[in-house]
Design goal:
Strand order of the largest sheet: 1-3-2-6
Radius of gyration: 22 Å
Helix content: 25-40%
Structural class: alpha+beta
Oligomer: single chain
Shape: globular
Number of helices: 12
Strand content: 5-15%
Largest sheet: 4 strands, mixed
Number of strands: 17
Length: 406
């Protein structure tokens, strides 16, 4: 993919931080063993942890300044997990939940607040079947790849190159209530374009045209209603591809002759990932998958190839005796299926890059800049819009089983 640079016509384009003002820092997990590509591994790790006692349990836990087996913290919103100290009464294994662990990597997480250094409870409070999370990638000068990713599952916000990004929920309250948008923005856009603009339209437009910059992600807004309509349509298709069937969308599929298939079975424990551009073959040791378009192999986020990082997360060696070392004895069939779908997603997204570039040029040529938003009273954004909304309409269990005072 082609690296992007900030163009002069876009310098006045509004920042995503102003259009979607409430954002949350990435989760800080604190320990890697609480995330895995499959839920069975997490249950086995939990069983190993609780079978140990005393100093052995603490050593396996890998404590930090924020969390030890003696920490007493509240339960995560919406999760039925223990709140007693792990050293004393760990309780049953928490039911693993989906977590987007970096770009396009759907894994599983043990959703126990006692295990996570900084879980960002405000995100868990608004995570439901209506929510979408827009994940702004950390800025890497000259790096190729999308500036924004969209997911229905809770993201950890992890950036491949280690630079922090931001997580922006589309809605500030559960059940799709109160969009996380600058007050007055929807009315302004609706008046300019001549029809009602929905919150998801803004997310779709941003997905289609967002451009990274040192100041933050910029989202040019067009003056032409036709450009807006075309951009929203493209953005919705890009979002549907990224969501992989979530929120009622279709699973991503390539045309019949271009769908990747397993040509030679993936071995039990592959150690290397390779690519043959002439044959469009992805190799996992002697395992073979094709056709894999070159654009999918080369697809990067934050300067890191997505397929290479996905493979590394499943094959990296771990210190013997640690919980991280517990994993499948052989490569699961589910991982191969997920890899085929990931290849499809990356190929479909890469295939729309020329459309995105052309749309961005049209939007930036004669757009509604930050100055126009200030004149309309949309900017500056009120300070309250940058803080989480109050959604505490029910009791949440605090440390040691006591209910929190709300």
């Amino acid at each position: 993919m082609r690296a992007v640079t900030e163009d002069l016509p876009l310098l006045d384009a509004p920042l995503l931080d102003d259009l979607m003002p409430w954002s949350v820092a990435p989760l800080r997990l604190g320990r890697s063993w609480i995330v895995a590509p499959d839920p069975r591994t997490l249950r086995e790790r939990w069983a190993r942890l609780v079978a140990a006692e005393g100093a052995g349990r603490e050593a396996l836990f890998r404590g930090s300044r924020a969390r030890t087996t003696g920490s007493s913290v509240a339960a995560l919103p919406g999760q039925r997990t223990g709140t007693g100290r792990l050293a004393r009464e760990p309780g049953p294994c928490p039911e693993p939940v989906r977590l987007v662990h970096g770009p396009f990597d759907e894994q599983w997480l043990l959703p126990d607040h006692r295990l996570i250094d900084a879980a960002r409870p405000e995100l868990w409070r608004v995570a439901d079947e209506r929510q979408l999370f827009v994940v702004e990638q950390g800025y890497v000068p000259g790096a190729a790849g999308p500036a924004l990713l969209v997911t229905a599952a809770l993201p950890d916000g992890r950036s491949p190159a280690g630079r922090p990004g931001r997580i922006r929920p589309l809605f500030r309250r559960p059940e799709g209530r109160e969009p996380n948008l600058a007050p007055g923005l929807l009315d302004l856009l609706g008046g300019r374009y001549g029809y009602g603009v929905a919150p998801a339209d803004v997310a779709a437009w941003a997905t289609a045209v967002a451009r990274p910059s040192a100041a933050g992600c910029r989202v040019p807004l067009p003056a032409d209603p036709e450009v807006w309509t075309a951009g929203v349509a493209l953005g919705r298709e890009l979002m549907e591809t990224q969501l992989r069937g979530a929120r009622g969308g279709a699973r991503p599929r390539l045309p019949g002759g271009r769908r990747p298939y397993v040509r030679a079975a993936v071995p039990a424990r592959p150690t290397t990932l390779s690519y043959d551009p002439e044959g469009e073959v992805l190799g996992l040791d002697e395992g073979r998958i094709s056709p894999v378009p070159a654009a999918a192999w080369e697809f990067e986020v934050g300067g890191v190839r997505v397929l290479e990082q996905w493979f590394a997360h499943r094959t990296a060696s771990a210190e013997p005796g640690t919980l991280e070392a517990i994993g499948p004895a052989a490569w699961p069939q589910e991982w191969t299926s997920e890899l085929l779908e990931l290849i499809t997603v990356l190929a479909l997204l890469a295939g729309r890059e020329e459309e995105r570039a052309a749309l961005l040029a049209r939007a930036g040529a004669d757009g509604l800049g930050a100055g126009a938003l200030r004149e309309a009273g949309v900017l500056p954004v009120p300070a309250a819009a940058r803080r989480p909304a109050s959604v505490l309409d029910h009791q949440e269990e605090g440390p040691e089983g006591q209910f929190m005072l709300l």
